[in-house]
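new request in #modeling-help
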Amino acid sequence: MNEDGTPIGTVRRPNPRGQGDRLRAEILAAVARLLDQKLTDNPLPVSLREVAREVGIAAQSMYLHFSDKNELARAVAEDGFKRTVAAMAAADAEAAEAGADPGERLRVQANAFCAFARDERGVFRLMFGHDASSFDVPDRAHPAHHLWHQWVGAVRACETDGLSWPDGIERTALLLWSALVGRFALWSSTFGNHDPVELAAFADHMVETVLRGARH
Amino acid sequence: MNEDGTPIGTVRRPNPRGQGDRLRAEILAAVARLLDQKLTDNPLPVSLREVAREVGIAAQSMYLHFSDKNELARAVAEDGFKRTVAAMAAADAEAAEAGADPGERLRVQANAFCAFARDERGVFRLMFGHDASSFDVPDRAHPAHHLWHQWVGAVRACETDGLSWPDGIERTALLLWSALVGRFALWSSTFGNHDPVELAAFADHMVETVLRGARH
DNA sequence: TGTACATCAGTGAACGCGCGTTCACTGATGTAC
DNA sequence: TGTACATCAGTGAACGCGCGTTCACTGATGTAC
């Protein structure tokens, strides 16, 4: 074997002249296959040593708090979910104090969610960017569980207030949540100027659309 | 300086007894900061050498087709966008041939989009998972541009057919696209059993909701 | 028709580097007797 | 009150490894004259 594991001495039969591009297509297909396999891998695109440098400690000191790199990634994501829920709950409480109705409270929570995504893009991507199984927890205990309940609760409050949706509370909550997650992904990955206003406007528009779909 | 760049001889003043957890919080904050900085970095979570091994060539042969690793990532994503558009267009054409109305054609395209996401999860994540600026192209030439047009066209066809949306074509297309991207992110990252049927059902439901929001 | 040369599609060997992790250690602070 | 010891919050030094990239090379195929 060669040092990289390929069988020694095997030399790829070159493609016919003028068809070197075949290899290019083979490479693209191989990347796609490998990316699929890597989906549940360690998702932290930052090295332990970089983190240690940023904090100003020795790299080994990471192991005082996290058993390995994966555990660190898990902790960062879990912390992110907690802070997201906390931000939404705080926005809800503030609006409630100001006498807002449930629709308005849903709106401020949607905005809080988007604000967290915008302000903590790196963590947010970690939270929603890879496979749940890499956390090795059952769904019930998944750190996103509370966030889901926060959404359902916010929508249910509207129903309690007299609104009702033909598709039910959970479907409505999931639609709203999905739309915001997706819009943020598009906002930050492919389109536009990354204007925060655009994102907030979408959140407002989305809540309005959802409320419009309800019956009194 | 030490080998890792930290100033030599500086030893972190240990936290007071019983407060070792402070460091943990500092670490989490540092990771969040670093993740933000890394957003536009090379997004390919696979090494050139792995790809070469998978293809069965020497690692250096990658450079016959891609000037560096980033160029490879760009090519994979671009290919992904093209194939997504092609899959939607094919579904649309097939439905049209079968005499489907524009609403039904929108539905099959939404399903084709979800099917691509499901079947090519790795590539899909590359397409929507990182900053556009890492592609170094103006928006107009961004490989997602055609995909956006595909969505707008599919919605516009419904309007041509007599439907109209209070929010306009583009907003409607963006809502639909966002919802599907987000639902897929949730489907693949946090919730559930990864049941393909669930994803397809959401796509159907989403199109139905959008059509319901239109006037004749 | 023969032959010198150019081109193409790759490989061999090596480079310096940063990575995750382990092991043994330090030195300040608290605690039992 | 003194002192031996345990605990805590870290560091020093090193390991083997795979990485992205570069440079010089090969050997088959086509082409000009």
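bot summary: Residues 1-9 of chain B have pLDDT under 50 and may be disordered.
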